[in-house]
Specification:
The chain is of the alpha+beta class and about 150 residues long. The chain has a domain at about 70-150. Helix content is about 50%, strand content about 15%. The protein is built from 5 helices and 6 strands; from the N terminus they run ββαααααββββ. The chain has a 4-stranded antiparallel beta sheet with strand order 3-4-5-6, covered by helices on one side. A two-stranded antiparallel ribbon has the order 1-2. β5 (about 135-140) and β6 form a beta hairpin. The termini are far apart. The structure holds zinc ion.
């Protein structure tokens, strides 16, 4: 049996005796990638498979109706974390929409002033003091964590 080169990690490997056409080595990371790629490709090309994949978690939720309710009451810190992250995602999307639509929209909303705080997220929105051909806006959290930078050309 000839050695092959793994399409993911590029290392050479020897196909398993019962899988002479094996294209991916047996490393867990490479196998995971192989399954993910197969799954993605299959969902895109096979409507029945896609339907089953959509239906499966629905079925599970129907037979375990209280699971998430219980999970949320058992893990309040996760609930809070998720809420915070969702607020950030919402804010990012809103900001991106604003920038896409009009620069004026941003000015009217009062968001484009230096160091403006967006309640209730407590985030700072910083921009260059004057608008040029391209306005750069950065969103920075109170802990100075950089969140998003948007440029409008
Ligand atoms: Zn590999």
């Amino acid at each position: 049996m000839n050695d092959r080169r793994c399409r993911y990690c590029q290392k050479t490997f020897r196909p398993a005796p019962y899988h002479p056409r094996q294209l991916v080595c047996s490393e867990p990371g490479c196998q995971r990638q192989r399954r993910n790629d197969y799954h993605r490709q299959k969902i895109a090309s096979d409507p029945v498979y896609q339907q089953v994949c959509l239906e499966s978690p629905r079925k599970w939720r129907r037979s375990n109706p209280d699971y998430w309710k219980k999970y949320r009451s058992d893990h309040p810190e996760q609930v809070e974390r998720n809420r915070r992250q969702q607020r950030l995602r919402d804010l990012k999307r809103r900001l991106a929409n604003l920038l896409r639509n009009t620069r004026c929209g941003l000015m009217h909303s009062g968001l484009l002033s230096l160091g403006h705080h967006c309640e209730p997220e407590g985030l700072s929105l910083c921009s260059e003091p004057r608008f040029g051909a391209s306005t750069k806006v950065a969103l920075i959290s109170p802990e100075n964590r950089f969140i998003v930078s948007l440029t409008r050309g």
